[in-house]
Specification:
By secondary structure, this protein is an alpha/beta fold. It is built from eight helices and eight strands; from the N terminus they run ββαβαβαβαβααβααβ. Helix 4 links the parallel strand 5 and strand 6. The chain is globular and about 50 Å long.
């Protein structure tokens, strides 16, 4: 079971991403290559690490030598989070799972407090957790949904960075997850794509704010990736059969095809990069 359990507030609208353990066609999380100690001795907080891109990032970071704090949202995802913890431990690294709502400032504070208590440091913050709700008509987006999407997708990043900032030393890295929808738009993910635009602006602005302190801030903008988020309601059900086929590569990406972008931005390989965005999106050409 999870190591820590901070309950979300009651009476909230149920939220994604859903459980990877319930998917028949499991996403590919396993790293594709042997590690080379690029994160040896580091501690990384990875939000949304129970499944999907977050799990693949946690697995790859662990293979590269990092201990991992696995942050996830709901009871339904505990089995997935425990699986990610086992993956990290199988790589010979330590892991702790913390459950709760990152859209609440106090939970972000608790994540950092627990991380320092367990590991004594924070070297990398990966802001990956997010939710999306398709709506064909703009007037169908409720005030509750609008607030929750922004609270989960962008407020959480502010809260976690604010809580972690006193513990980030020179050489630390922050990697945010934005989206291809920020660059090309999405006619049925209006609130989601708006948050991704905010995340990109936050990434660039935070980079300027922290760069003199030696803390790099970058982002990854995935295209359509096969994760629990999409079949559990993040995309219209009638569009799932051809999900990702409109990319130049003609298929959705896998989480382990995205995780190396996060690793590159988290380690010293990208020491001369800050305020930038990488685009693992199946060949979609977008402005950077």
């Amino acid at each position: 079971m999870s190591d820590e359990n901070f309950e979300p507030e009651i009476n909230e609208e149920p939220r994604l991403p859903g459980a990877e353990s319930e998917m028949d066609d499991k996403p590919h999380w396993r790293p594709k290559y042997d590690g080379s100690d690029r994160l040896r001795g580091k501690v990384a907080i990875v939000t949304g690490a129970d499944s999907g891109i977050g799990r693949a990032v946690a697995a790859l970071f662990a293979r590269e030598g990092a201990d991992i704090v696995i942050v996830y949202y709901a009871d339904e995802e505990t089995e997935d989070a425990d699986k990610t913890k086992s993956i990290v431990e199988d790589e010979g690294r330590r892991a702790v799972c913390i459950k709760g709502d990152l859209g609440r400032r106090e939970f972000a504070d608790q994540v950092v407090t627990k991380t320092i208590a367990e590991f004594g440091r924070i070297d990398v913050v990966v802001n990956n957790a997010g939710e999306q709700h398709p709506d064909d008509e703009v007037e169908n987006i409720t005030e509750e949904q609008l607030r929750r999407t922004f609270q989960t997708n962008i407020f959480s990043m502010f809260y976690l960075v604010q809580a972690a900032r006193p513990h980030l030393e020179r050489g630390a890295a922050i990697v945010n997850c934005t989206s291809v929808t920020m660059y090309k738009g999405s006619d049925n993910l209006l609130d989601y794509s708006a948050t991704k635009g905010a995340i990109t602006a936050f990434t660039r602005s935070l980079s300027g704010n922290l760069i003199e302190d030696g803390i790099r801030v970058n982002a990854v903008a995935p295209g359509p990736i096969w994760t629990p988020l999409n079949p559990s309601g993040g995309q219209p059900r009638d569009e799932m059969d051809d999900f990702g086929e409109d990319t130049p590569m003609g298929r959705p990406g896998q989480p382990n095809e995205v995780a190396p972008s996060f690793l590159f931005l988290a380690c010293e390989d990208s020491s001369y990069m800050s305020g930038q965005v990488l685009h693992p999106n199946g060949g979609i050409v977008v402005g950077s």
